[in-house]
Amino acid sequence: MAQSPAVFVSHTVRDHRDHDLAHRLAEGLTERGIRAWIAPDDVPSGADWQERLVTAVLDECTHFLVILSAASANAEWVRAEIDLARRRRESDPAFTILPLVVGDQRHEFLDRFQRIPFQPHFPEQLALVLDALDHPAEPPARVAELTEHFVGRESVFTAFDMFRTRHDRGLFTVVGDPGEGKSAICAEFSRRTGCAAHFNLRAEGDHHALGCAVNVRAQLAKRLGVTLPGPPGSPAELGAFWTRLLEAAASAGEPVVIAVDALDEVDLSDHPDGTNVLFLPQSLPRNVYFLLTRRRSAVPLHSRAPQQTYDLGAHRDESRTDVMEYLRRAVTRLDLAPWIAEQPGLDEDGFVETLADKSQCNFMYLHYVLPQIAGGTYSAVDVTELPEGLQGYYQDHWRRMGMQKHPLPRRKIHIVYVMSELSRPVSRTFLADLLREDPTEVQAVIDEWEQFLHVGRAHGGRVYSIYHASFLDFLHDKEIVRAAGESITRINEEIADRLYADLFGADDA
User: Fold this and answer.
1) d(CA 39, CA 56)
2) Is 38:53 a contact under the CB 8 Å cutoff?
């Protein structure tokens, strides 16, 4: 059995950008079960740092990942760490050196090894590092989270199975409105079949073509016993890369299925006109299939392979049946019977029927509303007064949080909008520093909106990002933006000014 990677991350503290990248990479590796050793965080209190460093690099690690930048190239300790890695390599050729090179930096020793190209978007950077470690980039936690309470959808899976029976290759696309369960369908299919899966997440900044390609390649490499082409270093190489990758994967002799969620969230800014979304090829080898999901908005996707669209909106009866089963299970799971009993003339069957209508068969609506019922938010509300549909729920929560009061709570509104524009998980401290606000006030706003946030761990604490793209859409609705007295352009300019000037400027220490 191959040895589990243990990675030493070398970086300088002279530049906040290097420090931030190193720690985010270490945390990303740790989340995926890879041991990451980063100094000085992992130095025991009272230990001699150099002695501990020698032990870590020479005895404990399988990989040496060094961020080589203009600042680190002249940093004494980074040079010392590289020298230690050189000595380890001389005694153990299996010890792997991974230079992550920012800009055009050169180094006599490091130039012998394959570079990991620097990427401005962190998800793509992490994916390239994971690929160099032969480790899939897609965390199992994402699939587990989306499928925890999965119900039904058998008609979708049956339709895809029939599509594959009729065609020797092709693209099968599930189309639906926000919250109808497209991501859960993608995740459940991956869970059942073990196929490669990638989830585009605009709210977390993980929605770029390069990250998808590298992630899929890593997963296929783990599943198939064939040699796959190395990952591309830039989007310009992606078209040719997909062709080589799919041909190599198909050569294994078994069907290759790749599930990709939320094509409508993909950043197309680096796509030339006439290019397919994610730079997917127009031709597919035999036995290669894609299960894709998107909203009803069009995305550029032209293919000579067979295509089929499964519109969830055209299967309302099946969707309603699944929603009602989800509600029946939720009554027990969330102990909703006491609330139902307090509603005049309402029994469990009536509750299920009413919430199916109120939700408009939208699972995201139920994901938000049912815990609110269980938690007492609607303790004094008649079931008929619950909000209608997902957008209705967002509007109701916006009102209940006092965002329409006069005078407007501008600081609270501003914090929510800044979070929506950052497109990356951030901590309370990060937000407070960025906005020059009291951390306690920032935390109070986070607590009010936590149901709309994805909560992760980083730097030993909690980090937050917007959970679902539909909430971002709500915040960007012209009427909501106007009523809130905000300017999306001005917010992004403010973020850019403060982020680079205050957080990522050079440190002279």
Assistant:
1) 10
2) no
Distances (CA, A) of 141 to 148, 151, 216, 317, 456: 10, 18, 16, 31, 11
Cβ 468 vs Cβ 483: under 8 Å = no
Q: Mapped to the 3 state alphabet, what secondary structure does 320-375 carry?
A: HHHHHHHHHHHHHHCCCHHHHHHCCCCCHHHHHHHHHHHHCCCHHHHHHHHHHHHH
DSSP letters for 171-232: EEEEE--TTSSHHHHHHHHHHHH--EEEE-BGGGTB--HHHHHHHHHHHHHHH-SS--PPPP
Task: With beta carbons less than 8 A apart as the criterion, state whether 207 and 200 touch.
Answer: yes
Extract the tokens encoding 403.
Answer: 């965002």
pLDDT for position 351: 93
Higher pLDDT, 161 or 467: 161
Q: Which two tokens stand for residue 182?
A: 């497209």
Residue 446, Cα to own-chain centre: how many angstroms?
Answer: 19
pLDDT band (50, 70, 90) for residue 371: very high
pLDDT in tens, 58-72: 778 889 999 988 888
pLDDT tens digits, 266-320:
989 889 888 999 999 999 999 999 999 999 988 999 999 999 999 998 999 999 9
Query: By CB neighbour count within 10 A (0-12 exposed, 13-18 middle, 19+ buried), where does 468 fall?
Result: buried
Element (H, E) at 498: helix 488-498
CB atoms within 10 A of CB 287: 18
Kindly give, in sequence order, each residue whose CB lies less than 8 Å from that of residue 379, ignoring residues fewer than 6 positions away.
339
The pTM for the full model equals: 0.80
Beta bridge partners of 64: 8, 97
For 12, half-sphere exposure in the C-beta direction (CA atoms, 13 angstrom radius) is 23
DSSP state, 265? G
Per-position DSSP letters for 75-94, written without gaps between them: -HHHHHHHHHHHHHHHH-TT
Q: Is 456 left (phi over 0), alpha (psi -120 to 50) or beta?
A: beta
Question: Alpha-carbon distance 128 to 48, whole Å?
Answer: 33
Alpha helices in 15-59 (DSSP H): 16-31, 49-55
Q: What is the DSSP letter of 383?
A: G
Q: Phi then psi for 433, rounded to 5 degrees?
A: -65, -45
Q: What angle do CA 200, 459, 113 make, to 5 degrees?
A: 70
Element (H, E) at 112: none
Q: What radius of gyration do the chain's Cα atoms show?
A: 25
